[in-house]
Amino acid sequence: xxxxxxxxxxxxxxxxxxxxxxxxxxxxxxxxxxxxxxxxxxxxxxxxxxxxxxxxxxxxxxxxxxxxxxxxxxxxxxxxxxxxxxxxxxxxxxxxxxxxxxxxxxxxxxxxxxxxxxxxxxxxxxxxxxxxxxxxxxxxxxxxxxxxxxxxxxxxxxxxxxxxxxxxxxxxxxxxxxxxxxxxxxxxxxxxxxxxxxxxxxxxxxxxxxxxxxxxxxxxxxxxxxxxxxxxxxxxxxxxxxxxxxxxxxxxxxxxxxxxxxxxxx
Length: 266
Ligand code: ADP
Prior knowledge:
single chain, 266 residues, alpha+beta, 6 helices, 17% strand, globular, binds adenosine-5'-diphosphate, EC 2.7.13.3, phosphorelay sensor kinase activity, transmembrane, membrane, coiled coil
């Protein structure tokens, strides 16, 4: 009986091992598929601006054009070059995050100071679309974050709020001090995001409407980068949206003092 007991135990163990191997191999297959899909998406994203650039460069090269047409085509080529360079910059940043070679240097940051410098940077962009930005941020709020990385996060979020706002729209940026967290909230009254797309907007290269986002110069990576950075600070980022009403992004970061340097660790 003792012998049979041992035998059964062994068989159970082997069964569990076989199950673990199957599930590991399924995980590997899934990862391989995800990688292939991502590579296919990247190729597509890189090819699209290049197709436009080549097409318009060919026309400019081979046809006699009026000054107005020439200017228009060159400006499309310039825009596409800019789109491509943003896309490559974003891809490079995400690749560095994946390899954990994207240091987070935390220091005590007064949010008011950070917000003021961001407002200075984004104002010319908002002015082009006549979008108004209202800021509420008490002077005393501080927390331990990497100011450069957070600047990047907030610029991405505000840039989206502007891109998907109508001309003359309003954006509100509010910083609140809650118990253990600092909360940063960005609200816009733009076109919003359909319910069915909302769960995927933090995915790499996901865009609600390809043509709409492309027209606005979106890379489809802004929110993915923001999420990586916020989570590397042990924070959370959430998005709420209603179509034709607007979008709200909430970032929560723990206030706790962390002095050491860390890298991305997923
Ligand atoms: P993109 O660079 O294309 O804007 P993001 O990763 O920043 O990419 O955002 C992903 C998608 O989520 C966008 O393509 C857009 O469709 C949608 N989105 C993000 N922010 C907003 C917003 N404030 N209002 C409406 N749609 C938004």
